[in-house]
Amino acid sequence: MNSRSRSRITRVIGIAVFLLWTLVPVYWLVATSLKAPLETTRNPPVWIPSLDISAYTTALAEPQLVRGLFNSAVVAVGATAVSVLFGALAAYGVTHLAMRRMRNFEFWVLSSRMAPPVAVAIPFFLMFNGMHLNDTLIGLILAHIVLVVGIVCWILIESFRGLSPELLEASLVDGCGYGRAFRSVLLPLALPGIVAAASISFLLSWNDFFFALVLSGNNSATAPLAIYRAIGYNNIDLGQLAATSTIVLIPTVLVIGLFQRQLVSGLTMGAVKG
């Protein structure tokens, strides 16, 4: 067996182990959601479910799950839209308009992700309480903007850096102003990076649990809180819990599936010059 064959076998084994590590928990979650109530606690476990959808009908009949899905969608879309807007403007300014003193701006943008959420949760709570923004969707959107705007700016800075400066110069020579050159020339070319940044921002906001736990109540509870509240105090309905988790997982799978190509091209944009 030559070295190329050994390398190929090693690569196949590594990919197989990775797929098992990532897909088996997802399969177990979905399978548990499709089991009859008595099958969820059976020992030894049942690997092939009986395709019972009663857990889904029970979960979707819960008003807190439906409201949580709606609240999560509003918060994630709102936070993503604002973060991408300001991130694109910041990236354009840093990569094409910035002076020498702005070179360290990227580090300060990325440093916003270094602090753990627990470090800012209490200040947010106190500030929002004084502004009457606790348990509101606006308050959660503002908190999630702080959560995602750093990574959005960082991705878009690399995307705009991958665009040749001659594009801006040619646009200015043709009579465009800086604003029109941004809207009509650079922004469409940076679209893969924008889609990648928007997808990651949406996923981070949709999956956030900690800020929702601290800053929201009954009126603004999000989908991750619905999963948390599906856990009973005295007993746990594993089927309903798995069904709730699967429903909340569907939007993330759709985003990754629909924008997979844009995610790859956007995250690698600017990695190679020339």
From TrEMBL:
Membrane topology per record: Multi-pass membrane protein
GO annotation terms (biological process): transmembrane transport
Subcellular location(s) of the protein: Cell membrane
Pfam families given in the database record: BPD_transp_1
Transmembrane annotation, as ranges: 12-30, 73-95, 107-131, 137-157, 185-204, 210-231, 238-259
Domain ABC transmembrane type-1: 69-259
Entry keyword Membrane: yes
Keywords, comma-separated and alphabetical: Cell membrane, Membrane, Sugar transport, Transmembrane, Transmembrane helix, Transport
Highest taxon in the source lineage: Bacteria
Cellular compartments per GO CC: plasma membrane
PANTHER family found in the cross-reference section: INNER MEMBRANE ABC TRANSPORTER PERMEASE PROTEIN YCJP, MALTOSE TRANSPORT SYSTEM PERMEASE-RELATED
Family: Belongs to the binding-protein-dependent transport system permease family.
Protein's recorded name: Multiple sugar transport system permease protein
Organism annotation: Microbacterium pseudoresistens
